[in-house]
Write a structure and sequence with these properties.
alpha/beta; eight-stranded mixed sheet
Amino acid sequence: MQKIGVLGAGTWGVALARMLANTGYDVTVWSAVENEIDILSKTHIHPNLKNCKIPEKIIFTKDLRQACVDKDIVLFAVASLYVRDTAKKVGGLIPDGQIIVDVAKGIEEGTNLTMSQIIEQEIRADFKHDNIKVVVLSGPTHAEEVAIDLPTTIVSACEDIKSAEYVQDVFMNTCMRVYTNSDKIGVELCGALKNIIAIAAGVSDGLGYGDNAKAALITRGIAEMSRLGKAMGGNYQTFAGLAGLGDLIVTATSRHSRNNRAGYLIGKGLTPQKAVEEVGMVVEGINALDAAVELAKKYDVEMPIVFAVNAVVNKGADPLETVNELMTRKKRKE
């Protein structure tokens, strides 16, 4: 029986922990937020997954060592802002050759590194972990649906395809179908950038625009994502797959989407800060904005939707005026 340590007790970490436990694996969940562990240990119900009954056999712990030592897989499910700090602590607890699965989505401000790059950088810093394998799991996967066994598909991505296939075998079951991909950078960029486009789609809804506008944002958004991905060495086809178009569609249209919800509230007139407070959970698209803008400039890639969202969120631009500016840009071919 595989032993899996899940780092992070948010909705995604808990939904995956439940699925893996029900598949038959030995699962331990850790959180740095002690109150989360107290609640989950006592109730076996996540406050934001009220329809999900968590198996009694899952162990919830405040001890990071207990979640990392002697595990076949260590799963990073912490918010992107906490990936680096968590990785620093994990390095001394795992052996060289450890398989790590990352489900956090984002790009770090300041370094412009993806989550897997941060994990590799921190854990390999002691020069004793050169052979760790970091596999990225990403795709159209709302925790609220995985937590109640609704059919879901996801991508397991790693340059080492054998590691991707191992993770595919562990996570695949009757409710989750897993595909493999060797384009890890492409898959990670999809996961980070689609959140920004989803904010734009939410703003569009908040302003009262219709399906035409949303379809345009999704389609032109995937074009922007693909351009940057290709410039950074990603495979163009990745952006047309589950990790790209698939995840963008679900994040830009679903009632479960935090990013879409935050954008909607901004479109309705709330400040970005108030919108995030209203959502009540991490809005990863806002966290990824600075890095996305810097990467677009670095690689000389045109990303007008990303820049428009940045103008509204970080520069106080009026959403309505920003839409008008997008619509009246210089004419061009598709």
